[in-house]
Task: inverse folding
């Protein structure tokens, strides 16, 4: 497993991060969750991503249990705050109250005294940005958080936060952005990537496999394989249903020979492609089985040459979405590859 700096910070993170969105507490529990985490550790993964809202706290609890007993300084644990964690009016957003209370709850569930990285899960239009940034800065000053980041913020929102951090003289700055990013969904490239490269913010790219579609296991004209996310319980089928479609599945199959030519599976090709993009510090990949973790981790340290990247563009063609207006709207918009 190779490691990279998170943006221009001194923090080193594994090229593949183990994430537990839609898995721990929804598709994977108990011993199976622990087995996946153990596989990640065995593969050299040191970075683990979760959020307070994942399975309404259960994902953090399972991750905390699975990591119990590990040397804390050898791990990088990241969590997020903003999305609703309850029915109360203050159980959401980026107010000082919710940030502080959510951080304390995450620390308890994860069984740790501090978070290496704490990210604003979305932008909060209802809370003054100054209030949000000062609350985050206070957590850093208290030693409960080491680094700060955002997730699915637009370029203007990130830029406004960077400016305000300087104007307020805050100690901590934004070092990470966690966007959806893969061969198909490239909406961060026109505006966000250039800004982040200039400001030293690293990308923690999630959904590198587009909910598993880029793994090649979903074939056109065939039912989804048993045990896949498309046939699982929880919310996973809803998310993956947004990207399934015959035109896309046909073109993904055209990528399989390209992956084989480079000694990789289609899933590894998808991860290696993201890692080859400018500004990417790590790829956040989830799994429901230990063998998936091992396969994903093996994509680290696998350079992808320019010819291979051009071939990917040729195969996917007009199915690639690069519209920057869709940043932070991925839950609401219809991607270019989704058929009616």
Result:
């Amino acid at each position: 497993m190779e490691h990279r700096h998170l943006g221009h910070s001194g923090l080193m993170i594994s090229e593949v991060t183990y994430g537990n969105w839609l898995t721990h507490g929804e598709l994977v529990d108990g011993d199976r969750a622990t087995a996946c985490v153990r596989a990640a550790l065995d593969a050299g993964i040191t970075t683990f991503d979760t959020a307070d809202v994942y399975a309404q706290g259960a994902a953090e609890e399972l991750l905390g249990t699975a990591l119990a007993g590990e040397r804390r300084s050898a791990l990088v644990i990241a969590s997020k705050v903003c999305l609703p964690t309850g029915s109360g009016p203050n159980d959401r957003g980026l107010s000082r109250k919710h940030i502080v209370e959510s951080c304390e709850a995450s620390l308890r569930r994860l069984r740790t005294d501090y978070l290496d990285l704490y990210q604003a899960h979305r932008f909060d239009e209802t809370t003054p940005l100054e209030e949000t940034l000062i609350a985050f800065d206070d957590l850093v000053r208290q030693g409960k958080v080491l680094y700060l980041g955002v997730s699915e913020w637009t370029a203007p929102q990130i830029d406004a936060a960077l400016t305000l951090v300087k104007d307020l003289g805050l100690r901590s700055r934004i070092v990470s952005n966690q966007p959806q990013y893969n061969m198909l969904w490239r909406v961060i490239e026109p505006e966000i990537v250039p800004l982040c490269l200039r400001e030293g913010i690293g990308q923690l790219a999630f959904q590198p496999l587009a909910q598993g579609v880029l793994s090649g296991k979903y074939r056109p004209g065939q039912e989804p394989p048993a045990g896949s996310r498309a046939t699982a319980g929880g919310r996973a089928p809803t998310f993956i249903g947004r990207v399934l479609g015959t035109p896309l599945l046909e073109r993904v199959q055209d990528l399989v020979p390209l992956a084989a030519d480079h000694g990789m599976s289609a899933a590894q090709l998808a991860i290696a492609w993201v890692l080859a993009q400018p500004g990417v510090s790590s790829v956040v990949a989830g799994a429901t089985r230990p063998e998936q973790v091992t396969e994903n981790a093996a994509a680290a340290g696998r350079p992808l040459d320019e010819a291979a990247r051009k071939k990917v563009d040729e195969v996917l063609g007009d199915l690639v979405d690069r519209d920057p207006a869709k940043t932070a709207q991925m839950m609401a918009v219809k991607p270019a590859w989704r058929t009616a």
About this structure: The domain at 3-326 is CATH 3.20.20.100 (TIM Barrel). The longest helix spans residues 246-261.
